[in-house]
Amino acid sequence: MIPVSRPHLPSRQNLERYLNRVYETHWLSNRGPLHAELTTRLATFLDVNPDNLVLVANGTLALQIAIKSLELEGQIITSPFSFVASTSAAVWQGLEPKFCDIDEKTWNLSTSQAQKLDTTSANALLPVHVFGQACNTDAIDQFARSRNLQVIYDASHCFGVKYQNRSILEFGNISTLSFHATKLFHTVEGGAIYTNDTHLAKKIRRMSQFGTNDQGVIVDVGINAKLSEVHAAMGLAVLDEMDEILAERETIWKTYDAMISSCFGRQKRDNATEGNHSYFPILCDDEATLEKLQHKLKDKGVDTRRYFYPSLINLPYLGDTQHCPISESISRRVLCLPLYTGLRQQEQIIDTVNAMAAQS
Ligand SMILES: *Cc1c(COP(=O)(O)O)cnc(C)c1O
Fold first, then answer.
1. How many angstroms does the Cα of residue 26 sit away from the middle of ligand 1?
2. What was the pLDDT predicted at 357?
3. Against a cut of 0.90, is the pTM above it?
4. 350 exposure class (CB count in 10 Å sphere: 0-12, 13-18, 19+)
5. Is the pLDDT of residue 360 over 80?
6. Measured from the CB, is residue 154 less than 6 Å from ligand 1?
7. CB of 180 closer than 6 A to ligand 1?
């Protein structure tokens, strides 16, 4: 079976080189030398300030801590077209998600839809840069200022993405990343929080380590969200291969883009976004076509995934009082094709998809 995604395993020899350091120092967690090295090297790679980059144990905790650090309450405006964690992290922190429908073309939170919302009970916006395509940050910024809202971007899909010639992480008050095994860059489990605000970054760092500052003094309420040395070792070994990973994914992505029939829709990508080719989603005309295609691919041994279905408005723990028809329609019709390093038989996948297009 060809999976929809497969974690990248770095050279074992290289990973062992980092793990040997763990054995030499006997330092397994609590911001050890590998954690420090990964932080600096990631900051360089992502072109951000290392002092303001906080590594954490996963992307969901990154969102939770981001929300906690801004002391948010009441409602939070968010996108229903996302992975469940963006909404669930907000609910876990005691916030009420207020969904804003997405743009039909970019599939990101739409500010023209946001204009129609009553935001009097909201303090914040939580947009998601879906599939690595940047949100319209200028419009979101303007909207947020006009309504006095803080902005947390879920940038889980955006490892290495540049927007308007700078790191995507620099936009909004805070951005979060996920380093889960299936993401483009990973530490097995892991994530990061970034903010341009140095004072806020210090608070976020404290919050991720029981509320203690770098001298070990307890300052405020914290949680344990530390990234261990063993996880940092995996991160360093993957980062050593990042240029090759990105190049291989780009080749696969571009092959899909050139070969897949234009009968299937695509996410609109703008010129200001330098993407990372993390996903290859296609849009079917209707859900029946999608199901038929997914079935056909499965018969050929190809696994695909309905990212993101269902639209989060339908989460079982939320009442069904909200309505986002665009997200509902897109989420019923989007299918992600296999994309990972070491992918074989891409032609077979393309042929199966195109055969379906010829039929319909
Ligand atoms: C993966 C992902 C998360 C959660 O990250 P974890 O590291 O798995 O906790 C959050 N939001 C989005 C959009 C994601 O894709």
1. 31
2. 86
3. yes
4. middle
5. no
6. yes
7. yes
